[in-house]
Amino acid sequence: MRIGLVGFFGWGNFGDELFFNIWREALSQHEITRMNDLIEKPYFTKSAVSKASSVDAILIGGGDLIRIESISPLYWNGAWTAKPIVVSGIGVAEESNLTRPDVIPRLQKFFSSTNVLSLSARDERSTEWITEKLNPKVPVRTVPDLVFADYVALKGRTQSFNAVPRIGFVLNKSQITQSDLRLWDRLSTAHASGKINATLMVLATGEQRERELDNLRRNGLREYAELFCDTTQMLDRLRGLDLVISAKFHALVVAAKYGIPYISLRETSKSIALTRYSPSTVIPLEIMEVMDPVFRGIGSATAASVFTKEHIRDMANAEISHLSGIINTIHQLKRS
């Protein structure tokens, strides 16, 4: 059976490419194709109707796919509703101060389709928003980020902390703040003194990496950037760190998965939700002692999780199993 994946796939963003790899592995018995064959509008070389007719089912997944100020013809294209659809782990980005009056009615129409067979969100706030604003046909389930699942090809982190703490500093394509620049300056000073080993990591490839490098260049940081060929290299590098300080959400998720202390540079609904599932590991005293001048004015997660790591993993695995089961049922019905 041919499954079309819809999301922010192909641009090279770290978290989205992890999602793509998860679904490609989880649904390996089927033919997997990315619905967008372009990474700029109109996103397709053929009509969306033609693209939909070329697959047997559609899986929509990823992060901030619902935005209150715009609606994407890639994610929420009415043509998709001609085929069975499963929607997994999406989030609602409410950070924008802008709204557009046509967004909610168009989303309501999409989610009212009887072909939307399953719907889950990445956090409680997104679940509430979708339920209240869109009134979908199927109930919205809240699931942890799928990177916590076993399907990600990650080795466990078994090493102890490094003698000289390794700190990963991650920015993204969004505006780099003066606070970010001051913090990197502190990290660089501590690095130069030999107290830490600090790295400015660009967790992206392709088009997304070019955007992020342009952002670093505009802020005088390009020369410090460490680049990677693919997500495997990024994961290997993250696994060897003692602390992750990041504006990019999935660097925090991977840190949480490995039990590496993390600090979020952005307070967003998804970073707040992450602390509920998996709050930052306590930063070891030996790191705090050398990092104290750096950390002044920088907070970290202190919330207590109501879940064990095993429970989080099991919930993420259950989401993948649930949707794989729906896909397999569609396959069986198609064959009968």
UniProtKB/TrEMBL annotation:
Could you tell me the keywords of this UniProt record?
Transferase
Q: Which GO terms describe its molecular function?
A: transferase activity
The protein's superkingdom reads: Bacteria
* Database matches in InterPro entries: Polysacch_pyruvyl_Trfase
The Polysaccharide pyruvyl transferase domain sits at 13-265
- Pfam families referenced in this protein's UniProt entry, alphabetically: PS_pyruv_trans
User: What protein is this chain from?
Assistant: Polysaccharide pyruvyl transferase family protein
Say which species the protein is native to.
Glutamicibacter ectropisis
